[in-house]
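W.,

You were right to be curious about this one. When I first looked at the sequence I had no strong expectations either way, so I just let the prediction run and decided to look at it fresh. Below is the sequence, 128 residues in total, followed by the output.
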Amino acid sequence: MEKASVSVKIYNSTYALTTSASEEQVLKIAAEVDRRMQELAESKKLLQTDKIAIWTALDLAADRLELQEKCVALKQEMQQQSVVAEQKMQEKYAALELEMQQRNAVLAEELQSLQARYDRLLAAVRER
């Protein structure tokens, strides 16, 4: 993807960023960083831009770490659910397999009974 220059304003300073991301995405990110810097400057009563930037970076990093941990937890939960679902499927398969074997045994007995009956009838017809 081609790189383009996007001008953004963050905490009263303008920056020209060269990026392969879309302009819309870059502007959204810059707006979020600006919003957080404004909020932190106000809430922590900070005046120095570098300190505000550090607090913002720490805040964003904490959010990212929290999201990563949630992602890991969700992946583990999905794996556990997958294992449980697979076990249930195996149990259902085993039950169906057993049912099929039982039905086959019944059918085999019926077939033997019909074969014996046929043999008797055939013998009776031959005797006549």
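Here's what jumped out at me. Residues 101 and 107 are 10 Å apart (CA to CA). And, maybe more interesting for your project: The beta strands are 4-10, 13-19.

Coffee later to discuss?

I.
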